[in-house]
């Protein structure tokens, strides 16, 4: 029996060592891991108070010399470190097998079912989300002219991809738009599509690194930051590349602001752009957050079947 116990401890130490290596490669702190796991649990529908996990609980899972190891928690840690669904399932099975070989120190019965982890970012799902994001952005570009061509409504897909798949997938939506506009010979639209790339990065890193998609108010605040960043890029393009004219409803607003305030047209362009962009990004951010919540709720049962 002692030999079996020693074998179990050795296997657990081996797994913990691998887990340490994975965390070191990702460069994620224990506090950040705890925050990511908490966010994923809340997104999966858990009560915020019950979903919280202490960073000390996470750090303890990386301690060598353990006799017990929570397979479910390890699965959540691995997923928070960016591993796909297949790897997460493999880790959970290996930990459960290692612990099961020790009859003396087998884990106590689980009295509380932990919330399921968030939907895994498999390559197929990421590609599907990116395609959906491109289509959603295209829909916005089509609808906007019907509403006076004042707002943009062309980044709801970018925000959605940022929440569900991270910054680089979100930025790729903008890259695809640039490529499509260039193929169509629409150089001006291609130049402005650069703002989609920057928006994807800001939304994506804000959501994944700073947990600003954990609640709607936080994500709307992040969307306001996106508005400022995109305006910083769009205004110089409008002033220097287009000579101050966009051939859109924004030109009329520019003239109104310039006439009422007495500021020069370039300043009026900046005022109009940041104001419209702020309203626009908050609206599309709210839409994207609602769709992302619906997608996660829809896919959560399928993720449970994979566990």
Automatic annotation (TrEMBL):
Domain of life according to the entry: Bacteria
Transmembrane segments: 159-180, 186-207, 219-243, 267-295
Alphabetized UniProt keyword annotations: Membrane, Transmembrane, Transmembrane helix
Protein name (database record): Helix-turn-helix transcriptional regulator
Organism: Microbacterium gawkjiense
């Amino acid at each position: 029996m002692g030999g079996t116990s020693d074998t179990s401890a050795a296997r657990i130490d081996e797994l913990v060592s691998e887990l340490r290596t994975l965390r070191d490669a990702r460069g994620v702190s224990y506090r950040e891991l705890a925050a990511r796991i908490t966010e994923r649990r809340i997104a999966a529908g858990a009560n915020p108070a019950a979903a919280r996990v202490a960073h000390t609980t996470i750090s303890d899972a990386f301690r060598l010399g353990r006799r017990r190891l929570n397979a479910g928690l390890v699965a959540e840690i691995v997923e928070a470190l960016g591993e796909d669904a297949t790897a997460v399932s493999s880790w959970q099975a290996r930990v459960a097998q290692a612990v099961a070989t020790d009859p003396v120190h087998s884990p106590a019965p689980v009295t509380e079912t932990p919330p399921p982890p968030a939907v895994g970012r498999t390559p197929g799902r990421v590609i599907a989300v990116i395609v959906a994001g491109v289509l959603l952005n295209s829909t916005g570009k089509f609808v906007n002219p019907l509403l006076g061509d004042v707002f943009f409504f062309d980044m709801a897909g970018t925000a959605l991809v940022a929440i569900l798949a991270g910054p680089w997938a979100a930025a790729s939506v903008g890259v695809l738009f640039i490529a499509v506009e260039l193929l169509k010979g629409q150089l001006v639209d291609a130049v402005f599509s650069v703002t989609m790339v920057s928006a994807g990065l800001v939304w994506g890193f804000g959501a994944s690194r700073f947990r600003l998609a954990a609640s709607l108010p936080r994500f709307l605040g992040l969307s306001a930051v996106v508005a400022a960043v995109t305006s910083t890029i769009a205004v110089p393009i409008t002033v220097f590349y287009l000579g101050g004219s966009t051939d859109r409803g924004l030109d009329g607003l520019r003239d109104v602001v310039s006439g009422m305030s007495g500021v020069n047209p370039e300043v009026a362009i900046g005022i109009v752009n940041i104001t419209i962009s702020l309203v626009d990004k908050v609206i599309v951010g709210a839409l994207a957050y609602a769709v992302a919540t619906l997608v996660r709720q829809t896919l959560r049962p399928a993720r449970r079947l994979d566990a």
